[in-house]
Amino acid sequence: MAFWGTVSVGVLIVAALMLATHGFDQVEDYHQLPLMLIPVFGLWGFVLLIASLAFACLGAALEVGLQQAYLVAQGFGWTWGEDRKPRDNPGFSAVYTVSLFLAAIPIMLGLDPLRLTIFSMALTAASLPMTVVPLLFLLNDAMSARIATVFSPMPRSSS
Fold it and tell me: From the first residue on, what is the mean pLDDT of each consecutive set of 10 residues in the chain (159 residues)?
């Protein structure tokens, strides 16, 4: 994770240096991104940007839908797995398909993708305590018992 974080920081620094030399000092909207790449890379910059955004968004959408299908299938005790055929695990496949279609509805309604992303991140941050606090209580009980057995004094032998 640290490696890819370093790569991301390097990409940002190189992009800032390269775009600054071509007169792009301030980016105010994500719609400016293709316009910034055309003077630097020509038409290929626009094509590569669209392709990379398409692959990144498709991958993220498939990953979120797959995660939702795993969560529901494991919660209900269904058979699950992306390597199984849909007839072998119909519940998992149905949840995966429905979640992909449901995820497309806000975009088809014309909602701003950036605002939708910020809203979903806020919901995730708000729901995090509801998932983490019970987990901390469970881990605290298990860790307390484990620590107590590891650091408990040895019984003394009577002589």
Answer: 76 77 74 74 83 83 86 85 81 89 87 82 84 76 62 54
Contacts of 80 (CB under 8 A, 6+ apart): 69, 70, 73, 74, 89, 91, 92
| Burial profile 109-143: b = 16 or more Cβ within 10 angstroms, e = fewer | eeeeeeeeeeeeeeeeeeeeeeeeeeeeeeeeeee
Q: Measure Cα distances from 74 to 70, 71, 86, 91, 139 in Å.
A: 6, 5, 16, 10, 21
At position 9, the amino acid (one-letter code) is V
